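Suppose you are handed a protein chain with no further information: no name, no annotation, nothing but its sequence. What can you learn? This example shows the usual starting point.
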Amino acid sequence: FPMCSSHLACLWLYIVLVGGTILVISLLLAIICVRCLDRRKKVKHNHVDEVDFTGEVMTLTQMPERRTWSEVHLDWEGGGEGGRARRGKILLLYSPDTKLFKELQESFKSFLDLACHCDIYDLFDDALFDTIAVDPSGWLEEFV
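A reasonable first move is to predict its three-dimensional structure. Written in structure tokens, the prediction is:
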């Protein structure tokens, strides 16, 4: 080059020329790859999978007949058909940080009692706490 006295003085020019050439080549390769991928996708979209479905619906289990909520509640309250339905047990574990939170837990406990018909055990209930304090492992075995 006429304005460069040495190769070292024109180093910036070489860097720009090589960088620009690499940039143009990479852009051309990217465009070619995108077009090839688009062609492949078009070929794959034309291929349709066929599923052999006769329309017959299979059921693995028999669905029980529908029951109303009042029938379910009567089962729980009366012990169920032949005493089959056992009451569930719910153990409330929480940390009574504030008085408001303790009141919220009491409300939740009464809601569960009405809605679930379960035996609700609250570790911070005074009567239950006295029972647990005497023999914790025995109480837990009885609970489970």
